[in-house]
Structure formats: structure tokens, C-alpha cells
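queue> pop job 88
queue> type: inverse folding (structure -> sequence)
queue> payload:
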């Protein structure tokens, strides 16, 4: 498996950009935020179980009887049915919960406990993600610096090798020195490839913290190893 050359490493954006994205898109933060929101709703649901409720029901109906009597107040266009009355009813139903041995109160307290717990978990996750994002940001900057530094080393060793090879051809350089320059050249190339791989891994970690890592990123990385 040959690792292809990476061209033009991107300049990393400011740290605030990545932290802002992490707050909005990081999956761990989003998951814990939802838990807090649901726990807060659960408190309201459980608390409502101890409150009285009022139900209002209204009914309205018309009674029609078949008749040919023109004396009825209203008839349809075919003079077959006549209106002879209406019924209205309104029903109010009040429900007052009976004391259930503290069950409702216990349920409310349990919901409050969960809310506090999930809130604490959210704060912990939030801080961890921010710290992780900062660390990954610093790591990728270090990785970019290392790639650039070892790229310069590789170019320098390549120049040394070419120079020694040219001198060897005219008899002013030994074979041992040429072989040593070749060894130095391949060592610097190997290290450069390792640093490029480190950069790729750090970029994926930063995107994960940022909450923007996608299948497309993984596919692009895998293509570099084809």
C-alpha cells in the first residue's frame, strides 16, 4: 500500500472557529443537551400529576322529524323534514388527585434528580469537548509545522544525494558517501510520510471534536492509500 503525496497543507483557521462549531455540532454535546431538555420536561409532566384538572365538554344537536305539516317552523327544500327542536349541553368535570402515599412527590423528586444529574453530565462533557478541541487544534498546527520541516529536510537530502552522485561520476566522491546520502534521503522521506499521516489523523480528530466529521472525509483519506 503506497501512501500518496499530500499537496498544499491547508492553513488552520482560528481556534474560536473550531470551538464555535464544537458547541453547535459536537455529537456528545448535542446528545447530553437533549437529555437535559427531556429531563426538564419530565419534571413538568410529573408535577402536573399532583394538580387538579378541569375538563369542559359541550354538545349541540338538532332534532328533525319527517313531516308534511306546513305549520312547522322550518322545512327543507323538499318539504319532507321539519325542524322541531334543539338540545344544548355543557358538562364541567373536575378531577382532584387523591393522595397516593407520596408517589407523585417521589416521582417529581426523581425527575429533579435526573435533571440535576444530566445537567452536571452536560457541563462535564462540554468542558471535555472544549479542552479536546483546543488540544486537537494545537496538535494539527504542530503536525503542519512538522510536515513542512521534514519536507525541507527531504529536499536538502535530495540535493546532497544529487551532488554526491555527480561528483562520484567524475571521480571526486566515494561510493560509500553516495550510499550514505541515499540512506539519508530515504530516511527523511519515510519520516516525512509519517508526519503527513500524523497530520491526516490529527485533522480527523479535530473534525470529530468540531462535529463536522463525515463519511466523505474518511473516503478521501482512504483514497490516499490506494
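queue> result:
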Amino acid at each position: 500500500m503506497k501512501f500518496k503525496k499530500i499537496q498544499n497543507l491547508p492553513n488552520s483557521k482560528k481556534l474560536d472557529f473550531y470551538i464555535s462549531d464544537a458547541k453547535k455540532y459536537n455529537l456528545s454535546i448535542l446528545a447530553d443537551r437533549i437529555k437535559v431538555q427531556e429531563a426538564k420536561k419530565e419534571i413538568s409532566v410529573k408535577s402536573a400529576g399532583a394538580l387538579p384538572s378541569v375538563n369542559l365538554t359541550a354538545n349541540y344537536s338538532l332534532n328533525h322529524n319527517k313531516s308534511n305539516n306546513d305549520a312547522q317552523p322550518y322545512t327543507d327544500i323538499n318539504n319532507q323534514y321539519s325542524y322541531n327542536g334543539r338540545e344544548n349541553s355543557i358538562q364541567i368535570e373536575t378531577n382532584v388527585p387523591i393522595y397516593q402515599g407520596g408517589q407523585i412527590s417521589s416521582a417529581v423528586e426523581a425527575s429533579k434528580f435526573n435533571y440535576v444529574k444530566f445537567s452536571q453530565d452536560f457541563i462535564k462533557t462540554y468542558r471535555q469537548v472544549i479542552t479536546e478541541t483546543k488540544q486537537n487544534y494545537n496538535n494539527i498546527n504542530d503536525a503542519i509545522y512538522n510536515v513542512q520541516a521534514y519536507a525541507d529536510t527531504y529536499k536538502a537530502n535530495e540535493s546532497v544525494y544529487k551532488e554526491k552522485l555527480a561528483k562520484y561520476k567524475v571521480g571526486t566522491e566515494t561510493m560509500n558517501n553516495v550510499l550514505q546520502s541515499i540512506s539519508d534521503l530515504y530516511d527523511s522521506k519515510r519520516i516525512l510520510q509519517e508526519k503527513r499521516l500524523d497530520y491526516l489523523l490529527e485533522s480527523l480528530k479535530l473534525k470529530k471534536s468540531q462535529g463536522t466529521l463525515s463519511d466523505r472525509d474518511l473516503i478521501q483519506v482512504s483514497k490516499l492509500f490506494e
